[in-house]
From TrEMBL, chains A, B:
DNA-binding region positions on the chain: 38-57
Cross-referenced InterPro entries: Homeodomain-like_sf (IPR009057), HTH-type_TetR-like_transc_reg (IPR050109), HTH_TetR (IPR001647), Tet_transcr_reg_TetR-rel_C_sf (IPR036271), TetR_C (IPR011075)
Organism of this sequence: Herbidospora solisilvae
PANTHER family reported for this sequence: HTH-TYPE TRANSCRIPTIONAL REGULATOR RUTR (PTHR30055), TETR-FAMILY TRANSCRIPTIONAL REGULATOR (PTHR30055:SF148)
Taxonomic path: Bacteria, Bacillati, Actinomycetota, Actinomycetes, Streptosporangiales
Name of this chain's protein: TetR family transcriptional regulator
Length: 212, 212
């Protein structure tokens, strides 16, 4: 962030402008969709100059990407850690249900779909996305699964990257391709099936390991 | 297809032109990528007139969609059925390994990525895709899983739509977002994990039900 090197007051003003621009981008993407989102529109909504936006970001895709980073960072600097009550199944359901809520909310869903398109078209943005958002979030997921593995709740030889794909992938494809309703029941079934497997006898195994 | 209503000779000529255009679209998409693919380029490569292409298709996305349908239909009219040797795990690995080969081949992968982008941007194309390609292929997958379920190789209460998402989803997201290498080892692990689950003890269950 270039604001770090400036005087405190200028830095604070820049940060305020930056947040206004990112919020405007999110709002507009949710309202008009990505195709009709423009730098001009974002500038007007944010009360900022077009040149300010172009000075900080090369494209509307890049603005949206930072806007989504702002959302995922919440109030702090780091993405929020995944819940850990000791009950892996319950925790995963909590996380996936929250994702279902997000994906059903156009304020999140539209910018995320727009970003997905930009990533497919723009290898540089894709690399940036992988480094700054996808990989850190994936690391949080792996870390939660790794703790479950250490506690004997996941198979010792389970490939945690495959596990992440299996648990989070179905929701993502169903959303991206608009293949079906995104419901908490779907989220729950995905978690249960990923943990227990599709073979017969799965349901006879415990579905809730001892919580701590 | 409008060619059906024409005289046999004209229909044959149209079908030849149509296939030349679709093949040119696939070749070019693989060579130059989707962003630089144009109706003009397709026309030149196919030795056809631009107007002919515009008469049959509204956009380059629509051309590519029909080109991919042509590929998936193979020589016949229907998508190929999934293998059924009686050994579900082996059959699923065969299918996913073939998908890995396809997705690692730019001739297939580039047009499919391009179509994915178009589908995200164009709800009409998305509906067409769902009806003409995605849903028929999903039905084949469900049918294979349903036979396995009847044979007691899948849990009686398994949700077959979730099962399809779990088995095919991880490969699709890893490919689409370029999140990791697409290997036969990945395909195999996805199949094994989807069938056996992530919990401990999974590996002690039989991984190959009796083949017929």
């Amino acid at each position: 962030m270039t604001t770090q090197r400036k005087a405190p007051d200028a830095a604070r003003r820049n940060e305020t402008a930056r947040r206004a621009i990112l919020t405007a981008a999110l709002d507009l993407a949710g309202e008009v969709g990505y195709a009709r989102l423009s730098i001009e529109g974002i500038a007007a909504r944010a009360g900022a100059g077009k040149q300010t936006i172009y000075r900080w970001w090369p494209s509307k895709g890049a603005v949206l990407f930072d806007a989504l980073l702002m959302l995922s960072e919440g109030q702090g600097d780091q993405p929020a850690d995944l819940p850990d009550t000791g009950d892996l199944e319950a925790d995963l359901k909590t996380v996936l249900r929250a994702t279902v809520d997000e994906l059903n909310d156009p304020r999140y869903s539209e910018p995320m779909r727009a970003l997905a398109v930009e990533i497919l078209l723009d290898p540089a943005l894709a690399a940036d996305f992988a480094e700054r958002l996808d990989e850190p979030v994936r690391e949080l997921k792996r870390r939660r699964l790794s703790r479950a593995q250490a506690a004997g709740q996941l198979a010792a030889d389970a490939d945690l990257d495959v596990a992440v794909d299996l648990i989070w992938g179905p929701l993502r494809t169903r959303w991206l391709y608009r293949e079906g309703p995104l419901t908490t029941a779907f989220a729950d079934t995905v978690v249960e099936t990923a943990l227990n497997g599709l073979r017969p006898g799965a349901s006879s195994r415990p579905t809730s390991p001892t919580p701590t």
